[in-house]
Write a structure and sequence with these properties.
By secondary structure, the protein is an alpha/beta fold. The chain has a single domain, classed as Divalent-metal-dependent TIM barrel enzymes (TIM Barrel). It contains twelve helices and twelve strands. The protein has an eight-stranded parallel barrel. A hairpin with a 4-residue loop joins strand 1 and strand 2. The protein is globular.
Length: 291
């Protein structure tokens, strides 16, 4: 059997998975395997790591993105993932952890088989910044420079480094927009972007317009739904996919035009129903999605 790594240059990831996974494990409209950010089940993982991964797989997911390893070794994480029939393709780490232990985290993620290492949140340049400190535009530019350096290290071991947004990246700071600065300063050969479409929408951004303006800068999505996303972060209420007000049709249509999206992660930050039902609801929404 040809390995996935050696085959990537000749076929798409979707074609590879099609040979080994049932159609129900795929998400429309981009034909990618169903995937979930494990932050969705952070509380459950703390209580029963293997059991929770089994439930994730039972809901139809085949790929996961980590948000912490709960004091487990890389070997233990790999064993648990293999037991559940899951593959961890990406890992989230906050900037505070990355600036202290980047090499160790990179090696850990490489060992469990990740293709991506994502900075989940930026941090001030000064390590002694007081609690509640508001980052300046210079802080954001410093983060962008750090991303370039980290991305250069990561690519040498076959991992792509990237950044994941929330809301504050799109708020004006010192006469500029932090996310614009991140896109401007980072080297596309070293840094990719994981676009959290839900939080971007809450911030008043249209993800499809952002992608049209910056083709090929985004390689992964986080998708989630909100009731009243136009009300801003204080008024928006997270819910399951398809039960809120975000229209994902133009987002996926634009992605198909000028982006090379490799993974689409459901992220369910809170549940409006029992968590196992929530994961299945999200999976079914993506699986049946039509543009």
């Amino acid at each position: 059997m040809i390995s996935r790594r050696s085959f990537l240059g000749q076929a798409s990831a979707a074609a590879i998975y099609a040979a080994t996974k049932p159609a129900a494990a795929f998400a429309n409209p981009l034909g990618l395997p169903l995937a979930i950010q494990l932050y969705s089940v952070r509380q459950q993982l703390q209580q029963d790591y293997d059991g929770t991964l089994a439930q994730v797989a039972a809901a139809g997911y085949r790929e996961v993105e980590s948000a912490g390893y709960y004091n487990k070794s890389a070997a233990e994480v790999k064993q648990s993932l293999q037991k559940a029939g899951l593959r961890c393709v990406s890992a989230h780490h906050p900037m505070g952890a990355l600036r202290q232990n980047f090499d160790e985290l990179l090696a850990f993620d490489k060992e469990i088989g990740c293709d991506y290492l994502i900075c989940s949140s930026a941090s001030p340049k000064a390590t002694d910044a007081p609690k509640g400190y508001t980052m300046t535009l210079d802080d954001w530019r410093w983060n962008a420079d750090q991303f370039n350096q980290m991305g250069e290290k990561a690519v040498k071991v076959g991992i792509r480094f990237g950044y994941h947004n929330h809301v504050h990246e799109f708020e004006q700071v010192d006469g500029g927009i932090p996310y614009d600065e991140l896109l401007r300063i980072t080297d596309p050969a070293k840094v990719t972007f994981e676009l959290d479409c839900g939080w971007a929408t809450v911030a008043g951004i249209k993800p499809y317009e952002l992608m049209a303006k910056h083709p090929h800068r985004f390689s992964m999505f986080h998708i989630k739904d909100f009731k009243n996303p136009g009300g801003g972060q204080k008024e928006a209420k997270v819910t399951e996919l398809g039960l809120g007000d975000i229209d994902y049709r133009p987002i996926f249509q634009q992605a198909a035009k000028n982006q090379k999206i490799r993974h689409i992660f459901v992220e369910q930050e809170a549940f409006d129903m029992p968590w196992q039902d929530s994961l299945k609801t999200d999976a079914e929404y993506i699986r049946k999605f039509k543009t």
